[in-house]
Amino acid sequence: MTPTPGAVAVRTEQLTRVYRTGGQGVTALAGVDATFARGTFTAVMGPSGSGKSTLLQTAAGLDRPTSGRVWIGATELSRLSETALTKLRRTHVGFVFQAFNLIGALTVEENILLPLRLADVRADRRWLAEVVERVGLGDRLRHRPSALSGGQQQRVAIARALATRPEVIFCDEPTGALDTQTAAEVLALLRAVVDEQGQTVIMVTHDPVAASYADRVMVLADGRIVRDMPQPGANRIAEELASLGRTVQGVR
Amino acid sequence: MIKLAAQMLRRRIGSALATLVALTVGVVILTALGAMVESGLRYRPAAQQYAAADVVVAHRDLSFTTKELGDVNRVTVALPEGGTVPAALADELRSVPGVATVVADVRVPVVGSGPATGHGWSSAVLTPYEIIKGDPPAQAGDVVLDARLAGDAGPGDRTTLLVGGSAREFRVSGIATGAGPESVFFTDAQAAKLAANSGKVDAIGVVAEPGADKKAVAAAVGKVAGGTGAKAYAGSDLGAAESDEGSARTLLITIGASLGGYVVMLVGFVVAGTIGLSVRHRRRDLALLRAVAATPGQVRRMVVAEAMLLGLAGAAIGVPGGYLATEWVHGQFAGRGFLPAGFPMSIGVLSAPAAVLTIVLVAMLSALAAARRVTRIRPTEALGEAAVEPAESGKVRLVFGVLTLAGAGTAGSLTVGAGGQTALAGAIGMLYLFVTAVALLAPWINRTSAQLLTPLLRGVWGTSGYLATKNLKASAQGMTTVLTALVLSVGFGGSVWFLQDNLQRQTVEQVREGTLAQHALVSPAGLPGSAVADARAVPGVQAATGVRRTSVILKVLGDAEAVPAQAVDVGGAATLDLRVTSGSMADLGADGVAVSQLQAGSSGWKVGDRARFWLGDGTPVELRVAAIYQRGLGFGDVTLPREVVAGHTARNLDDQVLIRTAPGADADRALAALAARYPGSALVASADLNQQLAQDLAVSAWLNKLLIGVMVGYAALAAANTMVMAALARRRELSLLRLVGVTKRQVKRMVHAEQTGLLGVALVIGGGIAATTLVAVVNALTGDPVPYVPALGWVAVIGGTALLALVTTVLPIGRLLRVPAVESIGTKE
Lengths: 252, 829
Description:
Chain A is an alpha/beta fold.
């Protein structure tokens, strides 16, 4: 299978990541093949230590795999230098983390513009106005992050991720630190970004409700994909996860 | 990038304050030092006494070449007694084309209504001095007085002048005015007779014919004079021929150069430390920047740009501060006699820009060094929950640290084996190496000491102590600056500051113990040889010794140095006990020399060797080493027979006559009568002489203490900065501790235990280094194996450290604890 530009946002091939701690190797990813189509919303799930965060980090070019390859759009990452990788990230990849997403010293607007500024690219004012409108932060642009609620902070992070019109947005537990109501708002925003702007979102989460906003649910265990299914609804996801827990325990 | 850096900086100015303070103070110190060096370099004493001369031939310094490891060095040293030139040279100069007038100038120290210098009347044209009343001197008994000295006296009056230590009466033939120091004029013949230095004159002044090419005349004069060791001074150098303010100039340049290098080093160290710490504290921010968009290069540039901006801000505050500091130093120096009152202090046209450039460059380079760390921050750290400081201390650093430590040990053993200046140089080298080794090994020292202190801290502080040891271990890397700065303060401060105390004490003690005489006849105008003879004739006097203080020039380690010396007449052994260790003072004779152990060690002299050096006026001598003695601090490193220095000191008189009376003899009245016979002299108990000496020493110690105070103060500031920064960054950690059930009191006790551990280790190491250095130096200088540390010294070192801990950590932590824990746990650090 050859990568098809335009249709595939992110693809991994035999992705392996081994952490070395004190002479012992811990396998976090054991050969993951995955393709994420453009305009889709994928939830990556799995128990703690299943390798879901590592998959996100290596697929996003934040961390380098031990072996295997990653494409973002048409670019293969393994041959890129650290600087080239950073440049790719700032134009083609957006990030939303669980917390500490924003630089406290910068205002909301400055945080949103940060990737553009570092890339030395002039901001497209109309697009930005649209993004700000979209996330509903028009009146908070001059505030510092410390003056915002957790949900607002996550919305700023989403705005920042959208600012460069990236190939893909990676989210690592974006609602992990939020209450149910706020979490629902943030997830709805992500959903809308996919539906209305054709963005690609890959989100790591352990919350079946959060995963229910996605089109597709991918479940990892012990560094391998064990389920890959169209989103079947929150209850079904929870059941799948529970059964998986039993299986894993049974195996051990 | 600069704009982003400025934005980030503006909003976290609080944590950048530490770096800003260090940079500002650095600029202040460097600007002041720069102004001192600049003033020294620019200083051209204006010609006063020789203002009307075109060329002056004088012998003011000594030059020779040395060969060190194949390098040929030209060494020039100012003559402490001011040299002389042969009188015959004047006749040769008269035949130089273009020369109109040649005057052989002699100087005769006299005291009238105030101290003055006597010259022959022909010297008057060199200033020029002009008669305003009366006539020039015509007969041997005539004198022309400076209007400033004359008072009510007019032509025809009689006046008494103290010349050569005795009072003589002269007839005032006229009153004259002129510039420069106060002068009186005799006939040329009388002046030459009073100077009593046949065939030699102090300087030769040359006035060129009107219209003659003065440069050509100066060159021609220089050629003729060249053979005698004298130099021709002309143009803007003319003032150097009459002034001995070269020492002030050298003092300024030496201070600036020696302290400047140290300050630059320290600024680099402090800035690298504080910026390193700020990078450490912002690790998550920087990781986020890396993850979102910034290349490693961009983050590094941002950190460097921040340092540059801080450097410039520091300059804006520091330069005016530096000017104020320069003013203050100038006032103090002039007030304490290190600088002549009229010494022009240039207010640093070059020094301020140089200081700013240096500081900004050092700040940027140190930031670059600290920013290397940034490269190692992986963007994935932005995803993590806790900001964990990775334990990373390079192997290279460890290797260098161990090597430096080994070097310090070697330097230490060198000190034990060697004597004299070598031992001193070894001890200072050891001090520097030890401190550098501590700086390099600091992370390991912190970690190991935390480990070793665990039982102690747990024993004393219980659970809080246990937490403290864990924190000490975890912050081992971050606290390297604190350890190093404190070790540096205590090590340098302890050794150099207390060394001054030791030197002062030893000097006074040596003089007290070494002076066997009970009385001393002293005179600021000098005492003639007859005073000693008269003192010996007083009934009840066992012995009397005329003592003349001077300096000689010795070669020391490829350089030349003026070394304090004394000249004594025969019978010195009865009034002075120099504590001779080999040879005998009785063997001094007329061609011998006695030297201190320190000097003998430096020059490699043993009793019986031929010692070659120069007298204070530049005359080379070769003398037999007759004795080696211990009390060099009190009595000078070289003791000469008076015959050797006769005619080679500026005044050619004794400074004091030491008088020893027989036990029980009542010679007080007769001695008082003796003092009355020599105008200007006074009889003092030798104990009072000591007091005067102690005061003089305190003045020179002040300078050294000022310098070391600046060094130590700056290092302590560095430690304080880092500690405040570290304390304020602990908001979250402390809140977390309190939320899991640690009481406020326990937190406070934990902080106390931490401070005790950290500062205790710094005190012990710094104290150890100071003690080692002090023992080595004091032993080399005085032969005393146990240095003296004043009680107040202990209090200052320990109290200062405790104060530092209180102000920089205990109080800020106390403030943090006043905020409810729940409030601060939510905020980002």
